[in-house]
Amino acid sequence: MTAAPTGVPDTGGIRLTDLVRAELTKIRTLPATWIVLALTLAADTLLALPAATDVVRIAGSGGRTAAITQFGTVLLAPVYAFVAVPVFAAGGEYRGGQVRVSLLAAPDRNRFFLAKLLAVLGILTVAAILVVLPGHLTRRALGGADVAEATGGLSAEVTAYLLLGLVAYGFAMLVRTVVTPLAVLVVLPVLVSPLLRGLSPEVTRLLPHEATLSFLGMPEGPHLALDRPVGLSVVVAWAVTFVGAAWAVTLRRDG
Amino acid sequence: MIEVARLTKRYGRKLAVDDVGFTVRPGRVTGFLGPNGAGKSTTLRLLLGLDHPDGGTALIGGRRYRDLRHPLRTVGALLDGAGPVPERRGVDHLAWIAQSNRIPRRRVREVLDLVGLTGAAGQRVKGYSLGMGQRLGIAAALLGDPEVLVLDEPVNGLDPDGIRWVRDLLREYAASGRTVLLSSHLMAETAGTADDAIVIAGGRIVAHGSLDDISAGHESLESAFFALTGDRRGLGGRGGRGGRGEW
Ligand SMILES: Nc1ncnc2c1ncn2[C@@H]1O[C@H](COP(=O)(O)OP(=O)(O)OP(=O)(O)O)[C@@H](O)[C@H]1O
Ligand SMILES: [Mg+2]
Questions:
Q1: Which of A207, A237, B195, B219 has the fewest CB atoms lying closer than 10 Å?
Q2: Which residues form the ABC transporter domain (chain B) (predicted)?
Q3: A131: distance to nearest CA of chain B, Å?
């Protein structure tokens, strides 16, 4: 049988870039992507105002108040809206049975996974810069370079968004839903970490959120602090683990 | 040309496809017939590499689906449970599929026009009716102008006009020397469309040949179908091995 039948001209074998373009289109044409990005941008920018001007203080222990920049969890909160972008990109495959269409179009599971990963990486990088930059500039303009530096610097922040986005992406590809990864990633810092840190700060500081805070130079207290390079390595390890596991499982799944 | 040999698939203890073998020739429309749960969709998934067989082979043009260089230009498929994300617009669904296999963008407009969805192309798929969704699936199958069409119950949800359109399309497709395999449990509809038929029941092939051969000695294809499948209903069948007199 000839590979290229009548009507549609054969333009050579299918390249990885064709598959990446298709994956980019999938993400771009999902309304959730844009809603989530708008939310993240708004949250990031709004949080930059109190962080920069020190107007808002959060009640701390012993009746003292603390500047919002000391509460990394609050400043990092928008990332949990942001990670919904890769989560929807992954979980969307399992809505309406799209993954079967995807695997018909790209039957080689390695290429399928690689193309999707590259598209997600590209989107995450560009989107992270776009949503983080306005808040960063606001802090710089209103609070000066010190405040901007205090929150880790632009490239560190973008890296943090990218890595947590990859953790979420791998997680969603593994469990094939949108809800579970988002719920778990939010519940970990909000509920699990406060309970766990009393019992074992050594373990708590290795959780993705806490390690990211260490990497950004704003750990929630000295007992949860890791050196910044160590924090970075821990988050990278989380991302590699989740994406790697998702890759391995995708190869063994049939559709 | 589709060649299936000794294909077997087990789900737990259930033998969904049991030593299935058949060939589908180009230039003809072949109906894949069987009652609910007979193993039609499973066989088609195995053929398209969306499920892993426990034994046997399924080849398209001499290759496994997974080894095709141009999957969508070679095979167009409409499958159960393979469709667009409901929030996506119809046109975007086709656009990414086309990009993935380097099919020119203009082809998206062509197939939308062909299935009569041009007016609804910009609508989100969740707003589609059953028949519109089916038409979008058929449009996706036709995108690559493939050599082989594999359609799982293509007329499901279509209005009489749509059914006639699919019949004419498939007949034309086969007349141009290409291969068409469609599953169905609608006998009257299949009798008007297909040249050949493969009848499956309880996971096993119970008849394979031209429609005339299969209906010979019966009043109609429908009564032949009941005679062939009556004791091998897929639903509630025991491991697909239930021959007459076993229960
Ligand atoms: N993923 C699965 N897990 C377990 N059992 C399955 C699975 N898919 C199919 N089966 C079983 O395999 C048998 C064949 O199912 P299949 O969907 O292939 O039938 P079918 O001929 O397409 O039926 P219908 O006409 O209703 O579409 C059924 O008994 C079904 O319960
Ligand atoms: Mg079926």
A1: B219
A2: 2-227
A3: 24
Q: Which fold has domain B2-233?
A: Rossmann fold (3.40.50)
B84 token code pair: 């667009």
Separation of alpha carbons B170 and B188, rounded Å:
16
> What is the pLDDT, as a whole number, of residue B224?
84
CB within 8 Å: A14 and B102: yes
Closest CA to B151 of B77, B87, B81: B77
pLDDT above 90 as % of chain B: 77
**Mean pLDDT, rounded, for A173-187:** 93
Query: Which whole-number Å values give the CA distances from B69 to A3, B65, B76, B103, B153, in the listed order?
Result: 7, 9, 14, 14, 27
Cα(B13)–Cα(B18) distance, integer angstroms: 12
- The residue written with tokens 């006009």 in the block is B161
Orientation angle between helical segments A84-91 and A16-28, nearest 10 degrees? 110
In a domain, A3, yes or no: no
Residue A2 lies in a domain: no
What is the whole-number distance in angstroms between the Cα of residue B38 and the centre of ligand 1? 7
pLDDT (mean) for B206-232: 84
> How far apart are the CA of A116 and the centre of ligand 2, in A?
29
Model pLDDT for residues B54-99, shown as the tens digit of each residue: 999 999 999 999 999 999 999 999 998 899 999 999 999 999 999 9
How many structural domains is chain A composed of?
A: 1
Tell me the residue range of the domain where A239 lies.
16-252
Atom of ligand 1 nearest to the CA of B80: 27
Please give the pLDDT value at position B221: 83
**How far does Cα A236 stand from its chain's mean position?**
12
The CB of B190 under 6 Å from ligand 1? The reply is: no
- What predicted TM-score, i.e. pTM, was given to this entire model? 0.89
Q: Is the CB of residue B39 below 6 angstroms from any atom belonging to ligand 1?
A: yes
Q: Token pair of B11, please? A: 């789900």
pLDDT in tens, B122-164: 999 999 999 999 999 999 999 999 999 999 999 988 899 889 9
Q: What's the pLDDT at B214?
A: 87
Is position A40 within any domain? Answer: yes
* Assigned domain for A225 exists: yes
For the Cβ of B79 lying below 6 angstroms from any atom of ligand 1, the answer is no
- From the list A107, A101, A4, the residue with the least C-alpha distance to B145 is A4
